[in-house]
Amino acid sequence: MANQIKLRNASGKYSIRAAGAVLGESNNVIELSEGDLTPVLYVPRADLAMAFFDKTDTSTHCPHKGDASYYTLEAKSGPIKDAAWSYETPNEDMTAIAGHLAFNTSKVTVEEV
Fold it and tell me: I need a surface site. Which of 24, 53, 80, 98 has the fewest CB within 10 A?
């Protein structure tokens, strides 16, 4: 599967929103495509309001990307558990996504503006 993972710089500017708030905007989004799965957008932490994200105890492991840590979004309307994840120390071939967050798109909107 590792040879089926493709990373590319997504063109355009993206807005990240949840619970009525803009969490960030970025021109530096990375799109990760993995086989037939829906592509995932990774947004640099530097372009996000990280004060609204708290690391949770949730973690998962991907043999190709490494260990993912999850974050709860502290919204005005209440916490949104595991709204985002990050490969903080990804496997060697995936280092481009280090320092980025990806989002559960049923909880957070990431769209090109």
Answer: 98
Side-chain half-sphere exposure of 33, counting CA atoms within 13 A: 8
Both tokens of 9, joined, read 């710089």
Q: How do residues 74-93 score in pLDDT, each as one tens digit? A: 998 899 999 999 999 999 99
d(CA 107, CA 113): 19
The CATH number of whichever domain residue 95 belongs to comes to: 2.170.150.40
Q: What's the number of domains the chain is made of?
A: 1
Q: From residue 94, how far is each of 13, 53, 113 by CA, in Å?
A: 22, 23, 26
Domain range for residue 38? Answer: 2-112
Beta strands in 10-77 (DSSP E): 14-18, 21-26, 30-34, 40-44, 53-62, 66-75
